[in-house]
Amino acid sequence: MARTSVPDVLAAIRGVDFPAGKDRLVTAARAASAPEEVVKALRGMPSERYANREEVARSVRVDPAADLDHDAAQRIERAREGGRPGLSQHLREEPRTPIQEEFGR
Fold this sequence. Notes:
Blueprint: H1 6-12, E1 20-21, H2 22-31, H3 36-43, E2 49-50, H4 53-59, H5 72-81, H6 98-103
C-alpha cells in the first residue's frame, strides 16, 4: 500500500492562498496532479478553515513513519498536542476513571 508524508501533502498544496478550507485544499491537490494517497490524506482532515500550511501539517493524518526526520521527543510532543485544539481528540486514549473501572464501562 502506498504511503504519503507531510512534505508530500505540503508540496501538493504549494500554490494555495490561506486561509483555506478542506475542500479548497483537496481541489488544489487534484489540480496539482497529486498522488491519490495525498488527496485521501487531505480528505481525511477535519472540515475546518486552515490559516496556514503549518496548521495543515498538524491536522493531516499520514503514515507515522513520515515523522522520521523528528526525534522521539518531538514526535511525543506532537502526539500530545494532537494538532489544533479540538482536532483528532477521538484518537487519544484516555485513562478510565475509577467509577468506569468499577462498572466496566
